[in-house]
Known about the structure:
Number of helices of chain B: 12
Strand order of the largest sheet of chain A: 1-2-3-11-5-8
Number of domains of chain B: 2
Helix content of chain A: 10-25%
Domain RNA polymerase sigma-70 region (chain B): 63-131
Strand content of chain B: under 5%
Largest sheet of chain A: 6 strands, antiparallel
InterPro entries (chain B): RNA_pol_sigma-70-like, RNA_pol_sigma-70_dom, RNA_pol_sigma70_ECF_CS, RNA_pol_sigma70_r2, RNA_pol_sigma70_r4_t2, RNA_pol_sigma_r2, RNA_pol_sigma_r3/r4-like, WH-like_DNA-bd_sf
Protein name (chain B): RNA polymerase sigma factor
CATH superfamily of the largest domain in chain B: RNA polymerase sigma factor, region 2, helix turn helix motif
Domain RNA polymerase sigma factor 70 region 4 type (chain B): 161-212
Distance between the termini of chain A: 30 Å
Keywords (chain B): DNA-binding, Sigma factor, Transcription, Transcription regulation
CATH class of chain A: Mainly Beta
Shape of chain A: elongated
Order of helices and strands of chain B: HHHHHHHHHHHH
CATH topology of chain A: Jelly Rolls
Structural class of chain A: alpha+beta
Distance between the termini of chain B: 20 Å
Oligomer: heterodimer
Helix content of chain B: 55-70%
Number of helices of chain A: 5
Order of helices and strands of chain A: HHHHHEEEEEEEEEEEE
Strand content of chain A: 15-25%
Largest interface: A-B, 81 and 94 residues
Number of strands of chain A: 12
Radius of gyration of chain B: 19 Å
Number of domains of chain A: 1
Amino acid sequence: MLPVHHPSLELLLDYAAGSTGEAAGLALATHLALCPECREVVAQFESLGGALLEAIEPAAVPSEALDNLLARLDEPVPVPVPVPDRRSPADDATLGPVPQPLRGYIGQDLETIRWKRVMRGVEQADIAVGRGRTGNVRARLLRIGPGVRVPRHTHAGTEMTLVLAGGFSDGDKQYQRGDFSFCDRETDHSPVADDDGECLCLTVIDAPLRLTGPLMRLLNPFIRF
Amino acid sequence: MNFTAAGREPPAGLIAGLVPSSVFASNGKMPDVPSPAALDGRSSDELLVAIARDRDKDAFGLLFGRMGPRLKAYLLRSGIAPSQADELVQEVMLMVWHRADTFDPARAMASTWIFTIARNKRIDAARRDRRPEFDPEDPALVPDQPAAADRSIEQAEASARLRDAIAKLPAEQADLLRLAYFEDQPHSAIARHKGLPLGTVKSRLRLALERLRRELAGS
């Protein structure tokens, strides 16, 4: 089944242009692995980059540049990076939901990840990525038990969520594997995991969440999503 | 479009097999920087194919004459220091030379392919961050739909259509688009720089992108 909720064109533009940070890039590229439609859009935006590059006002290069370059053509090429893990997901049931590039970040086995309990039915695990320009960007895996509701909250910044397994509903929208959701400070929501199984998501936030429910807001100083 | 092109190094065997040191060791001839007139003959796509197939250093020189100064302009605009920009242009062009065999003219334009290499080099140079990319060979990848696979409309035609579409954009949209591609800035910084509300920047960019996509779809 193909995703129905996609990143905005502006986000895909940023990815194609190369101005997304590592964490957002991780969420976008992992969505791309699951979404041929968005791969096509990114390919279009890359060709747009190519056309703009051809049309840019040229800058003078040193007169010896070409000679220097030609002299280097026969130099040995740099050692290639290691071949990425290409084990079939079928080799290991726990890898099934996780395509590249995310798989390369979280290791081999979801069960060996150090999950931290956030509240009953919700666990999270930090993923080591660059913290971005603000230093506040975080990428995490989130594991939500069947039917569990995440307390009502809003965001001081933005939140990207990519569903890897299971699903959740948020208001009248349904999110399944490959679906991408984008929330900002306008969003005040309380997503609920589907009843029929655990929901595994990748989330990228650039500022902490704020709980907004009447009692839960009292917990803000203590809870850290 | 060629998703496999940029960023990752190919297996060692590919390159080793492609650089027949004996064939070119005796060729000390360095082509001159070509005049613009000399560039009219072959398209960048044809030059790249010649580089991959024949290890054609003259074709490489022509391609450098065309793309080198543009790559430098691109790198400078993204905030790379002038001293570093010249070295990066060399690295991009070296990668073009070594990876030319991965360029597939049926699936991508040369300009696109070179852009993705330059973009990734810029990220490597300027960022502490990595650029995550999906792996087209990953068994967990959801494959292209049959309709999407058949996009072999003439690349030359696609290229012309794209240039037309960009030329027809309203100036303020084209301007923002260039900033988005060249300045390596978040939209909020573009908005400050332009003295525009962030919402205006985003909606103009979105209009430009939707319009370009319609034009590219040929509707």
